[in-house]
Amino acid sequence: MDKVDAIGESRVAKLINYFQQMPFTKDEFAKPYDKREADAEPKSDYPLAEDTVETESHVSPVEDDECQEPQSKIQKTNGQPNQTESNQDEDEDLARTGDTRKTSNSPTLELDQQWTIKHKQTVVRRPRYLSRINPSKDCPICLEELRNNYQLRRHLRTDHGRDFSLVPVLDYDQRNHPIDRPVFKVNVQQLPSTAITFLINIENKSSVTMALNSAYIFDGNYQLFPIFTGNQDEQLRMVPGYEFEEEVTFDDLMLAKGRIYSLIISATPIIPDEDFDWFIVEQYHFKEKDDEDEKIKPKKTQLKLEKLYPYELSRSVQALYRTNFKENRKYTEQDRDLLRLIERSKQDKLLTPDSYREQLELLNQFEVKHLLEQFGDYTLTKPSIKRRDGSRCYYISTKQFKKKPSLLCEDGNVLFIAQEGYLTSKVFGTIEEITPKSVTCHMQGLVNMRCVTKVIFLLNKTTFQLERNAVALMSTPLIESICFPEVITGGPLEPISSFQWIRQSVASNEEQMVAIRNIVNQTAFPAPYILFGPPGTGKTSTLVEAIAQIYHRRPNVNILVTATSNFAANELTSRLLEVIPDEQIFRFFSYAFFKKAHYIDWNVLDVSNLAGQSYSSLCYEDIYTCRVVVATLTTAGRLIQANIKSKHFSYVFIDECGSAKEISSLIPIAGLATHGDEINASVVLAGDPKQLGPVFEYEFLKQTTHSVSMLERLMNLPLYAKDHVTNEYNPNVLTLLRDNFRSHDTLINFSNDVFYEGKLRAKASPDKKNLAVDWWRLPNRQVPLIFHPTSGTMQEDKMSYSLFNESEALQVVRYVSDLLKNGLNENPVKQSDIGILTFYARQVSFIKHMCLQRKWYDVEIGSAEQYQGREKAIIVISTVRSIYNRVGFLSNPKRLNVALTRACSLLIVIGCEYTLEKDPLWETFIRYCRRNCAVAYSFPTPEPKNGEDIDEDCGSSSD
Asked: What InterPro entries has UniProt attached to this entry (predicted)?
C-alpha cells in the first residue's frame, strides 16, 4: 500500500464545502475514526448506543426531491462498464443500453419474490492500492493481497463474517471512520427468469459526482459475485442523482430462506480542481421482503441502569485460598468459621436454609479468587508485540504465555503499561481475536511497542456482581418457599380438554399436555415447577407451547424466558416467533454480543436490541410493550438494574437449568419473580440433571455444592421425590418427558437403561432414525452404531497440556471423507449433517485443522459441553485416551451421556478398548456394542464396482 500524507485542515474545510448538501455532518471527513468513541461506555455500568439513522429502500424506485434534475439511467453489459470517465455534460446525456446474461440450466424461480434493502454501514477510508486486483485471490473490498482462493475464502469467513463486516476496512488505518448516512440509494428486484436474476439500481444521492469503482453481492457463504468491477482507468462517473441500473444473472448464487445477503459498493468522490483520494465503502443488507419490513420503529426511551457495587474479596477468603483451605495457626476465629462452612458444603454437597446465602456467597468469592489467580498467570512482562499495519491492533504470540490462555475470550479487557523515561502510561483495549498462535488486541490508542513493559488481562466480574446482588435479594422466607419448598398451594386446575393446542403434535403426547397444563395453571406455586427433559424428548417444544398457551390464555400477564446460553435463548426466540406475534417478543442481548450479531438469525435480530445492526440499551418500550422477554441468565440481571416495576412478570422460565450454577439461576428469580418477601411469579426450571452440570476450571469447587445445579438439588428434596407406591413423580411439581423424537432405538437404549431407568420411549420418525440402517460399513446392518477400536499414541500438547491423538483423528477423517463422498445408502450427506465430538480441547483444534485443509468448513467440531442441547444426524466421537490405565475426566457419567445422545441416525465412537474398559461405565458401553455386534475392528474396503478405483481415504485402518 502506498503511503499517503494526511490532508491538512484547511484543505479538508475546502472539501467539506462540496459535501455540504450531502447527507454527512460537517468535519466527518476530517474526523478520524476512534473506536474509543464508538465503543465508549457511559458513566453508568452499562453502555448506551447513540441514535443512528436507518434507511430502507424498496423494490420500486422513488423520486427524490433533493435531486437537482432527473437523470438518465445507465446499464452495463455482463458486469462490464460501457462508459469510461468523461466530462459531466456527457454523463447526463447517456442512455441505458446493453443486454443481460442468460442461462438455461437453473430451476425456475417464483415470480412474486420481493426483497427489502437496509443500509448497514458507510465507511470513509484512505486509499490502499494494489497494482492489480486478482478477483480469485485478493479481497476487492478491503484490498488485502492474499495468496490464493483458499486464503480469500478464509479471509472472507474469519475477517468479514457471514454478514460481511466492514471492520477490517476501519482497522487498517486509524483515520478511516464510519459515517451515519448513506451516499447511495439502492433498489433490488428479482426478475421472473429461469435463472437467478436481479435488477439492481444504485443512485447517487450525494451533491457531488461519484466514481463507481465496484459493486459486489456477498452470498453469506463466503463468495463474492461481481455486479460492477471497474478499475482506475475504467470507472463509472455518476453525477448527483444519476442512477446505475444493471440486470445481472448469478448462475451459482444459492437463495436460502431467511439468509441475509450483502451488497457492497466502493466509490470515489470527484472534486473539481482537487486531488481527493478518499474512498467510500457502503454496505447494504437485503433479504426477502415481508410486511414487517414496512414498519418504522419509533424512537425509544432508554432506562437508566443502576451501577453495580464493586466486587471485593474478604480478607478471610484470600487467607483460606492462600493456605489451600488447610488449618493454620494464624487463622482468626472468622477464618475458622468459614473453613467449617466450606467443609459442610463438601459433605454430600448439600445446601441448608440457615447457611444458604452465606455459603453461596462464600463459594462465589472463591471462584472469583481462583480466576484472578489464573488471569494473573497470563500477565506478560517485557512482551514482544507486533502491530497490524496502520491500525491500533496488536498481535501477541501465544508462545510468550507461561500456560495456554484458555480462559481468555474475545471482547475481554486488556491493559498495556508503557514506561518512557520517568513517564508511565496505561492504554486499555479489548481482545479482538484469539488463535492458537496469537492474541490480537484492539487498543483505545496507539502504543509505542518498544516501551510496553507489561500486558495485563483483566477479569470481567459483571456476572459475579449480578450473582452477588441476586443472593442479597433472597430473604429467608423466599429461600424457604423457593429454594427449600415443602408445601404447594397451586392454582385451580383446568381440564386438558379445554386447551386448544397450537402444535398438534402436543395433543398426542400425554406428558407434554400434562406439563403444559400444570405450568399454565401454576400448580407448583410457590415452589418451582420442574420440566425434566432427557435428550430428544421435546423439552424446548414443550416450553414454547407452554409460553404460547400462557400468552393466549392469560392476556394480562408478562413472561420472562431465560436460558444459560445465547444459543439456547436464540433457539427459544426463533420458535416463539412462530406462535406469538413479533411485536410481543423482545430478545435482550448484552453489549458483548454486538460483534457476533452477524451469526444470529435475521428474525431474532429484528425483535432484539441489536435490530438494525446497532446496539441499544434497555428501553422502556421493549419491556413494557412486549409481553415476552427473552435473555440469558446473566443478562436478565440488567432488568434488576433498570428497576423494572415490581410484580411485572407472572412467569419466569429457566431453560437448561441443569447446566447452571445455583447462584446463577437466582439472577432471574430474585427481584423479578419476587418483591420483598413476596413471590409474584411462577418459576419453571427445565433441564436434565443426568447431563452435564456447571463447569469449572477450579477442581476444589467441583467437590462442593457449587457444582450442583438448582434443578438437580431440588429433585433430591422430598417434594420432588417419586411416589413409593407408583414410582412416578408428582405431576403438580415435576414432569418427566418420556418420548424420544431424535434417535434410532439402539442409539438411546444404552442411556435409557443406565440413566433413565428404562422410562424413555423411542418415537423418532422412520425417515430420521433409519437413514443409516443397512449402510454397508455397519458391522451390524440393522444397528446404526459403530465402536471402532484403535491403539494410537496419545500425546500431550506442550503449551496447554491438553491431549490429542493423531491416529484417532485420521480415523475420524476417513469416516467423514467416505460419508461426504459416497453418502449413506445412496443418500447424499452434507457437511452440516456431521458433528465431530471429542473430549479434549487440543484434539478439537487438531481435527479442525485437518477439516479445514480438506475444505470441510461446515463440519462442526466441538466438546461435549459445546454439543449439550444440540443434535446432528451423524456424530463421530474421538475419545483420545489410549494405552493408559485410567480415563481421566472421561469417567464423568454425565459427559458420556451427553456424548452418546447427540446423534439422530448414526453414531461412530473411536477409542482404545484397553483404556476405556478401565472405567466401569465405558466398559458397560463397550459390552453393549458387542451385544449388538457393533464393533468394527477394521475400516472395511468395498469391492470395486464396474472397474472403479477405490478412494485412498477409504483404505485400511491405521491401527
From this structure: DNA2/NAM7-like, DNA2/NAM7-like_C, DNA2/NAM7_AAA_11, MOV-10/SDE3_DEXXQ/H-box, P-loop_NTPase, SF1_C_Upf1, Znf_C2H2_type
CA pair distance 127, 1, nearest whole angstrom? 8
Query: Which residue(s) pair with 789 in the sheet?
Result: 911
Q: What is the DSSP string of 715-732?
A: HTSGGGSPPTTT----TT
59, 468 in Cβ contact below 8 A? no
Q: Which three cell numbers stand for residue 362?
A: 462464600
Which of 236-245, 587-596, 643-652 has maximum average pLDDT?
643-652
Q: What is the dihedral of CA 360, 361, 362, 368, to 10 degrees?
A: 110
Q: Render pLDDT for 24-67 as a digit per residue (tens, 0 to 9).
A: 333 333 333 333 333 333 333 323 223 333 333 333 333 333 33
Per-residue three-class SS string for 47-110: CCCCCCCCCEECCCCCCCCCCCCCCCEECCECCECCCCCCCHHHHHCCCCCCCCCCCCCCCCCC
Classify residue 574 by its DSSP letter.
H
pTM of the model: 0.70
Q: What is the pLDDT of residues 167-210, one digit of tens each?
A: 777 766 666 777 766 788 888 888 876 677 888 889 888 777 88
Rounded CA separation 283/184 (Å) = 10
Of 138, 322, 292, 288, the residue nearest 216 (C-alpha): 138
H runs (alpha helix) in 104-202: 149-155, 167-171
Q: Mean pLDDT across the chain, nearest whole number?
A: 81
Sign of the C-alpha dihedral computed for residues 740, 746, 748 and 754 taken in this order: positive
Residue-level pLDDT at 403: 84
DSSP readout, 221-255?
SS-EEEEEE-BTTB-EEE-TT-EEEEEEE-SS---
Grid cell at residue 570: 436464540
C-alpha to C-alpha distance for 773 and 778, rounded to whole angstroms: 8
Cell numbers that stand for 706 in this block? 457449587
Contact 577, 502 (CB under 8 A): no
Collapsing DSSP to helix, strand or coil, 413 comes out as: strand
Which of 710, 560, 568 has its CA nearest to residue 626?
A: 560
Helical (H) or strand (E) element with 590: none
Tens of pLDDT, residue by residue over 244-278, are 888 888 766 767 666 778 888 888 888 766 555 67
DSSP readout, 437-499? SEEEEEESS---GGGEEEEEEEP--HHHHHHHHHHHH--HHHIIIIIS-------PPPPGGG-
